Structures are given as C-alpha cells and as structure tokens.
Fold:
Amino acid sequence: MNRLYLIGTGPGGLEHLSPAARTALESCTDLAGHGLYLNLLGELTEGKIRHKTPMGEEIGRATLALDLAASGRTTALISSGDVGIYGMATLVFELLARKPKPEWAEVEIEVIPGISAMQAAAARVGAPLAHDFCVISLSDLLTPWELIAKRIGLAGQGDFAIAFYNAVSNKRSWQLLQAREILLRYRAPETPVIVAFNVTRKGEQLTVTTLGELDPEPLNMLSLVIVGNSETRQAGKWVYTPRGYHTKPELTGT
Ligand SMILES: C[S@@+](CC[C@H](N)C(=O)[O-])C[C@H]1O[C@@H](n2cnc3c(N)ncnc32)[C@H](O)[C@@H]1O
Structure:
C-alpha cells in the first residue's frame, strides 16, 4: 500500500514526540519537511532520505510528499507541533481536492497529531488555557490583516484567552502591537501575558509580562504569545485561568 503520514512532531524536544508519531517515522523510507524540523528529529531520521525544503515552499513540499508516496515510498510529511494547526495537513487535502493527480488516488493517508507549541508553553507556566480560549495567527501572508484584526477584536469581546502564533517575524512586528492595542479595549493592562521562545528546544525562554508591557522587540518567529482572559492570574511562579471552582464551597470555605 502507498502510504503518506502527516505527522505533527510536537514542539521540539523528542520527549514530547508521541509514540504513534515515533512508530510511523520508523516505518518511513522518506521524510519531507522544513530543515529545522527534520534536524530536531535527530537520530530518528537516520537511514531515511531527508527531503528538506525551505520556508515558503510548502506547496512544493506537499506535492513532493504525495508524489513520493504515490511512487511506493513510505513517506512522512513533517510539521512541528500539531500537523493540523497551521501545519502541512490542510495543504495536502487542498491539493487532493483542487489539483489531484490520478496516482495520488492510491495513496493511503494517516494524520498523526502532535503536542502544539501553545500546549507546551502553557504547561511550562501553569494552566493559562484552562478555560475557553482561541488561537490566532498574526501572519498576514495568507490571511488579510482586516480579518485577523476582526477576530482579535471578537476574541477580546468574548473574553477568550488567546494564543498568538506567528506573532512576529524578521520582517514584521507591527501586528503584535496592533493586537495589543485592540485587546486593551477589552482587557486590563495588568492582564498576564506569556511570551514563549523555542519551547522544549535548546535555548527555551519563557517570560511572564502584562498586556500593557508586551513588547514585540525581543520576539522572533520561534516565539508565541499567550494572553490571558480577564480572570487569568499569576500566583507565585504559576499563571492560571480559573474555571469557576472558586464558586464552590470547598474552595471558598463557606
Ligand atoms: C507555522 S506555525 C506552526 C505551529 C505548529 N504546527 C504547532 O502546532 O505548534 C509556526 C509558529 O508556531 C509557533 N511555535 C512553533 N513551535 C514553537 C516553539 N517550540 N516555541 C515557541 N513557539 C513555537 C511560533 O509562533 C511559530 O511562528
């Protein structure tokens, strides 16, 4: 059978790679992915053909993975974190739907989830995503800024905690500043904010700051930002968002 695995390899550290992902990787002859993510897999890539493609060449990478699988090579297309969250999985399904090649019909696809970067970042500081939350990418490469800004405003209005992916890149940081301005219409400047850089990878850094003091300057494309909701608080070294247990007599003592 011609098989293509779409694998989320987790935030970076191999201790966060799922056993299902590990087993699938072991069965592959070919791996396709951005060089950084293939490198993070270390010795798990040994003996396999590594097809490294740069950022911005996602369509070519997904096409290559489908072609390899169709030719009989057991192939994994790799994304960091979860492959379905700003990852490669959707592009494969879009290619299959819009530009199918007859040989792709023979490819058996399996999607293997991974721990997303926001989960790893949240776990490092406590439980900031414990109540309703949403995830917004600040990259306007594929989504118009007007739509992103609208979603930020609605998330602010709805009091969702928010994980911002692609918060800044080498070329842009104004989006994070605008996101902060929009959220300050709905949320106090003291709202806890977590800035997470290279979570579970070499050079990991996590900082807890506030919405009022959030500064895009030290961030880069390997960082994400979690903004708490109106209830999120810091207690010692932990940041958490309550789920309503504080109304229960066991917690209030009444
Ligand atoms: C294209 S998205 C990929 C998201 C990935 N599929 C996931 O579920 O984590 C890339 C963005 O994810 C975030 N990211 C991914 N891994 C990260 C990590 N280890 N530490 C901090 N942020 C990370 C950054 O915001 C980065 O710009």
